[in-house]
TrEMBL record:
Domain Partial AB-hydrolase lipase: 134-191
Organism: Thrips palmi
Domain of life: Eukaryota
Record field: compositional bias (Pro residues): 117-129
Protein name: Lipase 3-like isoform X4
């Protein structure tokens, strides 16, 4: 009921802004105006969708365009988006102001007339938001930034967690490389304001932690030995190149600096995809991985459960053509305007539950029980962190064909190359997945587990509402996931160091306590 009322309010604002042009007119506008929005309107199932996705679209339509074209992808994207924020804020204030704190209309008010009963909350991060190193310091840890050159000429950022501020460094610690997913960066692992950031938990447990960044994201410098970041050639990469070039550069750098022969690897989403590309394509790297921990692993995509991605997939080819024709190579980069928009909308009492959180749930899975305070505003400060056309179309091709293989020349290439040889991944692998992940369908993880030759551990998060973002940002990720991840890593350490026999009855909690006590470390859980 509330969603329908909010939809009606925003629809009224849209009609006022467009002089009553029906929403369906998006389908027949012949000019270049609203081209991108028209494509979204043509996506399957849009007409029957009073959902957060459609609400966001209406917000965009209700805002005046500062240029002749649709504001979202015309002229300077950031300037245009920034120019609409004030108007969007006024529209949302009017619409949300009609609802009380208990999601009921205020007596005597209709949609669009009442003012909100409260003022917005303070944003969790100011613009620009703190860097990964600054986020570490705010949690009482010391970090430093490194830069790594790949074999094909890109520069990557790498964050080294040195340990708690003021604590003595311990030599010989086992290194861990932690890698982010699509549209993320190292910041995503460190932005939580509580004590549950995974790299810091690992550091507190005695590991030598490094947090990597893929090429082209908001943290890695947009630098290449020969290519300009303004050129298409600079952005002509997918997670195939990330696996073949970025990850070996990061792994080798960490091993060289730590003086170790192998390391633990933790990859979330695209972080797991890239490592599977590396280990299947360059098998010599298997011996450098003590344990590959894959959180929400993406290899097989037999089903898309997000309505947003299902709808956009139906017009994927046209979206690609539009981006190429407008020379938009860095897709969805980090933006001060998006940060401001998230703070403007999502910190207003009631707006988080009515619009912002449901929009994120539409993407990752409905998960209201696991959201952090100021969830959407936290995410808006750091996400999206940039992607490329080829990354998106590579995942689209995996979903369309059902085959985990290189992209080749692009969508529809009849000879993209053989499938990645999953059987060549001989390093031990731990798989973590959830039933409510809109990106990762549990049967696909089961198939991956069947195809991998050395599955060390497999874990279904014991909560039916845990979603794709919750693997990093879930309010109870420490108890539901991180505790298991650390316990299994310590089991692997115990096996390698002969602390326990291979036949030892496995209890992650017992091993965790035993190991930390033996190392004279404080219990972090």
């Amino acid at each position: 009921m509330i969603m329908s009322r909010l939809w009606d309010c925003l629809l009224q604002a849209y009609r006022t802004q467009t002089n009553g042009i029906p929403l369906g007119a998006l389908l027949v506008i012949p000019s270049s105006e609203n081209t991108f929005l028209r494509m979204v309107g043509e996506a399957e199932g849009f007409d029957a969708m009073p959902s957060p996705v459609a609400l966001l679209l209406l917000l965009l339509l209700a805002a005046p365009s500062p240029s002749a074209d649709a504001f979202l992808f015309s002229g300077d994207v950031h300037d245009n988006l920034n120019a609409t924020v004030a108007h969007v804020f006024r529209v949302v204030r009017r619409c949300i102001g009609a609802f009380g704190p208990d999601d009921h209309l205020h007596p005597g008010h209709g949609p669009g007339h009442a003012e909100p009963p409260a003022t917005p909350l303070n944003p969790p991060y100011r613009e620009p938001p703190p860097s990964s190193v600054e986020l570490c310091a705010s949690r009482g840890f010391q970090c430093e930034r490194h830069e790594v050159r790949t074999a094909d000429g890109y520069t990557l950022a790498l964050v080294h967690v040195l340990g708690r501020a003021g604590a003595a460094r311990v030599a010989g610690q086992t290194p861990v490389l932690v890698q982010h997913g699509m549209l993320m960066s190292s910041d995503a692992y460190l932005l939580r304001k509580d004590d549950d950031n995974l790299p810091l938990i690992l550091s507190g447990a005695g590991f030598d932690v490094w947090v990597g960044n893929y090429r082209g994201n908001a943290v890695s410098p947009h630098e290449h030995v020969t290519l300009s970041p303004d050129s298409y050639q600079f952005w002509n990469f997918s997670w195939h190149e990330m696996g073949l070039h970025d990850l070996p550069a990061l792994v080798d750098y960490v091993l060289e600096r730590s003086g170790q022969d192998d390391l633990h690897y933790i990859g979330h989403s695209m972080g797991s995809t890239g490592m599977m590309v590396l280990l299947s394509s360059r098998p010599e790297y298997n011996r450098k991985i003590r344990l590959a921990t894959f959180l929400a692993p993406v290899a097989y995509v037999s089903r898309l459960r997000s309505r947003l991605f299902t709808q956009l997939a139906s017009v994927a080819g046209r979206i690609k053509d539009f981006l190429v024709s407008h020379r938009i190579w860095n897709v969805l980069p980090r933006s001060a305007a998006i940060h401001r928009l998230a703070d403007t909308l999502c910190l207003f009492p009631g707006a988080d539950k009515l619009v912002c959180n449901p929009l994120l749930f539409e993407i990752a899975g409905h998960s209201p029980e696991h959201v952090l305070p100021n969830y959407a505003s936290l995410i808006g400060a750091y996400l999206p962190a940039g992607t490329t056309i080829r990354i998106m179309e590579h995942y689209y091709e995996v979903a369309r064909t059902g085959k985990f293989r290189p992209l080749g020349y692009g969508m529809g290439d009849p000879n993209p190359g053989a499938e990645y040889n999953i059987a060549a991944i001989t390093a031990p692998v731990a798989l973590y997945y959830s039933a409510n992940d809109y990106f990762v369908y549990p049967p696909d993880v089961e198939q991956l587990a069947n195809d991998l030759p050395n599955v060390f551990h497999k874990y279904l998060v014991p909560d039916s509402t845990f979603n794709h973002f919750d693997f990093i940002l879930g309010v109870d990720a420490r108890q539901l996931l991180f505790k298991e991840v650390l316990g299994v890593m310590l089991q692997r350490e115990a096996a390698l160091n002969s602390l326990h026999s291979q036949t030892h009855s496995f209890n992650p909690n017992d091993l965790l306590v035993h190991y930390l006590l033996s190392q004279k470390k404080s219990l972090y859980f």
